[in-house]
């Protein structure tokens, strides 16, 4: 019995892994309705497969394969055809625009006024007079376009043109040098060790070290201690 449960559990985990790879690596907030329903259904089938001690496991695997095939077809066809994408995922819907709150659109989206205001506050807008347009996206999130006078200032608004920024390159992780990442910066292992030494660190004392576009090294040393913030309790 124990060996069968172990075997079917491993089998269900493998099937779930394959399903998620076929369906795509998307977060829950990025899923459409079919992705969400398929995920719940496949999870239930996989759970039944893991604890079923009497029945055959092939029907469950076939069912998971069918759901995976449909998920792949829907995602692929949605990428290739705007018509099918609108059919499967729906279209974005304007809920608020130029001071007008569209009641019928809220009703069609099954969103009441209180929930709409909550979404606005979550986005940082407590006053609707600061909002120009609010759009319900196909993933269920509400995108908000503020009025021009209420949007955050950008460097271009202030006639400031900063240098372009680039992602930092991780050169040391958990005390190990990631030599394959030197191709993304002008440093080499020797200059890295020299810069660490200048900051007073030995390689074995470094938990994380990154390099920015200016070839500056940022170091997080090993601490070995657990930080507890009383303000979060």
TrEMBL record:
Residues 80-211 form the YetF C-terminal domain. Keywords: Cell membrane, Membrane, Transmembrane, Transmembrane helix. The keyword Signal does not apply. The chain crosses the membrane at residues 6-24, 57-76. It is a multi-pass membrane protein. It is found in: Cell membrane. It comes from the Bacteria. InterPro entries: DUF421, UPF0702_alpha/beta_dom_sf. GO terms for cellular component: plasma membrane. PANTHER family: UPF0702 TRANSMEMBRANE PROTEIN YCAP, UPF0702 TRANSMEMBRANE PROTEIN YDFS. Belongs to the UPF0702 family. This is DUF421 domain-containing protein. It comes from Candidatus Ruthenibacterium avium. The lineage of its organism: Bacteria, Bacillati, Bacillota, Clostridia, Eubacteriales.
